[in-house]
Design brief:
The structure holds two protein chains of two kinds.
Chain A (H helix, E strand, L loop, with lengths): L6 H4 L30 H10 L10 H5 L4 H10 L2 E4 L3 H4 L2 E4 L2 H8 L5 E2 L28 H9 L5 H20 L6 E3 H18 L6 H12 L10 H22 L9 H7 L8 H32 L1 H9 L4 H12 L4 E6 L3 E3 L2 E3 L4 E5 H4 L35 H18 L4 E2 L4 E2 L8 E3 L1 E3 L3
Parallel strand pairs in A: 2-8
Antiparallel strand pairs in A: 1-2, 3-5, 4-12, 5-8, 6-7, 9-12, 10-11
Helix pairs in contact in A: 8-9, 8-17, 9-10, 9-13, 10-13, 11-13, 13-15, 13-17, 15-17
Chain B lengths: L1 E6 L5 E6 L5 H7 L19 E4 L12 H8 L8 E3 L12 E4 L6
Parallel strand pairs in B: 1-5
Antiparallel strand pairs in B: 1-2, 3-4, 3-5
The chains are: A alpha+beta, B alpha+beta.
């Protein structure tokens, strides 16, 4: 008897497995990876150039560690701009990838349909740990999002930034003046982390001598427990509980001040929208502010130096005309895209780019792809420091969840490059950087450089 | 076409012609007027073309969409006459309009 085709089995599964029907296990089931003799940037790029789109799980950190996701996103933009990934869905429940500028804009500006709620999984491709949900305002919908965001917004308003400028400049000068000449050192540690951790300690009025704790917590908050060498899930949670405890001390010391001071903890402790937060929500907002103020700027500081080294003509342009720093800063942030994606959950059935999105589906807005979309940006793969309209990039996201600290980040980068150009004619990157293995935080673990003696 | 006057926070004033149908954010960018950033390209998605519409012009500058309202609500220095310039299109009706800019765009 002829075998009947099994239509049900053949139909592609194109919806996220509902949370209620999904068995969350730890450790996660093993990941299916391409069948290659070895995983190198070359072999993975070659694989992504021709692999069936449905057989790729671009959430796999191996692609990001090797910086070879670009080919795949170009193919998605051209061939399947709203694309569902079922591959490895026993790990991530399945997700839609949105890769064109205009479609990402449509999702990001439709917060009524596309939710950020932590309880639905939150804002990253992998759901928040179901036993460790940390509500934070970026992972909330209206109206609660708005009132909590407004509680911290004044610290990064224009007038407040003007007050920070002198402090940022003197610290930048101090850090740059302390750099060795004629010897190789790690730019990530000596400059990128050093400057961002000092800034963050100031924003929290956290003891400067312990500022590297902020870096540590930021790294732990975003670290993938599956990656060898990273903390295990329970260890990670314990470290974050320790962070909470330390910040509770600062909160308690400031909550009874007659007038709130200008730091983030005082602002949260005194604002009616945030002063009664449960502990996990305080922790969530801390993680948001620490990661938001730390990882992103750090990786743009590192990325900028790498891009100038990769593009000597642009570096020459900068030396000839330091006035270009302002547009260069935006171009660096576009080119780096320090957060590769943000995720949403559909609250109702809808149509996106001709695809049927079901209620509960997970939607990934790949900013890293939108920032290279030829339909929106001319010659997008080129790093051009005097690019016209350089500000029009999507690294800060769009809509109500757009980065609240964007102008502070730009100010830090602008001052850094002004001070670099006053001191150093050249900073050489001496070897390929070590990259963060993550589809969310797109960054560098180390970037070895030398300033000629 | 409309003559639009952009007044920076420090009082510096620039008047330019903006073609019909072109947004007042575009009008500023095309004429190199600083103080309007237009980061999202005109989608009411970032609030970096925040302006204050001069008294008496509110009826002619059109209505505020839900998204524009949400973005303005999160902007610094929101006032009753706040608008996103990208959501106002130039036309003969707006000839002579004066837009004041906030201290910074955020």
């Amino acid at each position: 008897m002829a075998t009947q085709p099994n239509l049900a089995a053949a139909a592609p599964i194109k919806h996220t497995v509902p949370r209620e029907q999904f068995e969350y296990t730890w450790p996660l089931p093993p990941r299916h990876r391409p069948d290659l003799p070895e995983y190198t940037a070359g072999s993975l790029s070659a694989y992504l150039a021709t692999a069936p789109l449905d057989e790729v799980d671009i959430a796999d950190p191996i692609y990001w560690e090797n910086d070879c996701h670009w080919t795949y996103f170009k193919r998605l933009r051209d061939e399947a701009p709203i694309h569902f990934t079922h591959h490895n869905s026993n790990r991530h429940r399945g997700y839609w990838s949105v890769t064109r500028w205009a479609d990402i804009m449509a999702v990001d500006t439709n917060h009524q349909v596309f939710s950020s709620d932590a309880h639905l999984g939150g804002i990253t491709l992998f759901d928040m740990d179901q036993d460790f949900i940390m509500p934070m305002f970026i992972a909330m919908d209206q109206p609660k999002h708005d009132v909590q965001r407004k509680a911290v917004n004044p610290i990064v308003s224009g007038s407040n930034l003007a007050a920070f400028e002198e402090l940022i400049r003197s610290r930048t000068q101090e850090v740059l003046d302390g750099l060795p000449r004629g010897e190789v050192f790690d730019w990530v540690d000596r400059v990128s982390i050093e400057l961002t951790s000092r800034m963050l300690a100031t924003l929290f009025d956290f003891p400067q001598e312990h500022r590297r704790k902020l870096t540590y917590w930021s790294d732990i908050a975003t670290a993938d427990p599956e990656v060898p060498g990273n903390l295990q899930k329970e260890e990670r949670q314990a470290v974050l509980m320790g962070m909470l405890q330390e910040f509770m001390g600062l909160w308690n010391a400031r909550v009874n001040d007659p007038e709130p001071k200008g730091d983030l903890i005082s602002m949260l402790a005194h604002n009616p929208a945030t002063r009664d937060m449960p502990p996990m929500e305080f922790m969530g907002n801390l993680v948001l502010l620490i990661v938001g103020g730390n990882d992103t700027t750090r990786n743009s500081i590192s990325g900028g130096l790498k891009f100038l080294n990769d593009n000597p003509a642009e570096y020459a342009k900068l030396r000839a005309n330091p006035e270009l720093i302002e547009s260069m800063v935006s171009e660096i942030i576009r080119y780096q895209t320090p957060l590769a994606h943000m995720r949403r959950t559909a609250l109702e059935d809808t149509i996106l780019g001709g695809q049927h999105i079901a209620k509960g589906d997970k939607i990934i807005m790949w900013y890293v792809s939108g920032n290279r979309d030829e339909r929106a940006i001319e010659n997008p793969d080129a790093f051009i420091i005097d690019r016209p309209r350089a500000r029009q990039h999507m690294s800060f996201g769009f809509g109500i969840h757009r980065c609240v600290g964007n102008r502070l980040a730009e100010l830090q980068l602008k001052i850094l490059w002004e001070e670099i150009m006053k001191r150093f004619d050249n900073i050489e990157v001496v070897e390929a950087p070590e990259r963060v293995p993550s589809a969310f935080v797109k960054g560098y673990k180390s970037l070895m450089v030398r300033i000629p003696a | 076409m409309a003559k639009i006057t952009y007044v920076a926070h420090d009082g510096a004033s620039t008047t330019v012609d903006v073609a019909d149908g072109v947004s007042l954010m575009e009008g500023a960018l095309q004429n190199g007027i600083s103080g309007i950033d237009g980061d999202c390209g005109g989608n009411a998605a970032c609030a970096t073309c925040h302006v204050y519409v001069a008294e008496g012009w509110g009826d002619r500058t059109g209505s505020i969409s839900e998204l524009e309202e949400a973005m303005l609500d999160l902007a610094d220095g929101r006032q009753a006459n706040s608008r996103l310039a990208c959501q106002i299109k130039a036309s003969a009706d707006l000839d002579g309009l004066v837009l004041n800019m906030p201290e910074t765009q955020h």
